[in-house]
Design brief:
The protein is an all-alpha fold. The chain is built from 13 helices and two strands. Strands 1-2 form a two-stranded antiparallel ribbon. It has two domains: 56 residues; 209 residues, Orthogonal Bundle (MetI-like fold), CATH 1.10.3720.10.
């Protein structure tokens, strides 16, 4: 009986800690939502208030009409880059991971180690030579340049994650398929790939989140007005020479936040499974 009471007490304490941590994480988001629904005078009012005194949705309507609706162009650019990057990273990463997991590649372990080492290289250290390469290839201010950069830096993680997923698939399935006359590509597309959906979902969420929220790469390699992404474009719209429009900035942040939340809600049941795939055999 004493052990049960202790366990219940520990369980309640754990729930209390989780609730407190959740509230702390939600506070910044709730403050942004509150700011996006305030008029300018209420935003700078002291002491600040959580509940808007003069509730308004003007910030959400104004952001779509400002400068001829340029915010829609920023959203479209981010959407195009994110979709292209997610598709490329998941497909190429799956091909590479399958090779490292199931095929007899010469020096496979060394190659995999080299790929993993690239995860420790900071992007900022490669920014100048990468800028020189993209500029010499005449790819500045193009979607292709940004997609190539995103895919290059996200592939090592994708290969690592998906290799664990492929490792969890029994080799007997591949051997049976090969005996029945299936080619390596048929085995990959028809047998192995459908079994690693959790891993693919995890990589897709990681890739989408990283690409959609990027600021530095888009700022350096796509500085033309029509090529700016959501984060860069929103900053240019809301932050001016004479101050920052916090209401506009907050409403744009909320709008930009929604696609990733929706994506995660659709794929969340696969996310944890994908993170832990291959950890237990």
């Amino acid at each position: 009986m004493k052990a049960i009471l202790v366990e219940l007490k520990n369980s309640k304490f754990t729930y209390l800690i989780n609730i407190i941590v959740t509230i702390l994480f939600l506070l910044p988001f709730l403050w942004i939502v509150s700011t996006s629904l305030k008029i300018p005078s209420d935003i700078t009012k002291y002491p600040p208030s959580w509940i808007p005194e003069n509730l308004t949705f003007d910030n959400y309507s104004n952001i779509f009409t400002l400068e001829g609706g340029r915010f829609i162009t920023f959203l479209a650019n981010s959407a195009i880059l994110t979709i292209c990057t997610v598709v490329a990273v998941t497909f190429i990463g799956a091909l590479g991971a399958y090779g490292f997991s199931k095929l007899n590649i010469p020096f496979k372990n060394i190659l995999l180690l080299l790929i993993m080492i690239t995860l420790m290289i900071p992007f900022h250290g490669l920014l100048i030579p990468l800028f020189s390469i993209i500029n010499n290839l005449n790819l500045m201010n193009t979607h292709l340049a940004l997609v190539l950069i995103y895919v290059t830096f996200q592939l090592p993680f994708a290969i690592f994650m998906l290799k664990n997923s492929f490792d969890a698939i029994p080799s007997s399935l591949r051997e049976a398929a090969m005996i029945d006359g299936a080619s390596e590509f048929q085995n990959f597309f028809r047998i192995s790939l459908p079994l690693i959906w959790p891993g693919l979902a995890t990589v897709a969420i990681f890739s989408a989140y990283t690409t959609w929220n990027d600021f530095l790469i888009a700022l350096v390699f796509a500085n033309a007005n029509d090529m700016r992404t959501l984060n860069v474009g929103l900053t240019n719209l809301a932050v001016g020479q004479y101050g920052t429009d916090w209401g506009l900035l907050s409403s744009g942040a909320i709008i930009g936040f929604l696609p990733i939340i929706i994506l995660f809600l659709f794929l969340q049941r696969y996310f944890i499974t994908g993170l832990t795939s291959g950890s237990v055999k």
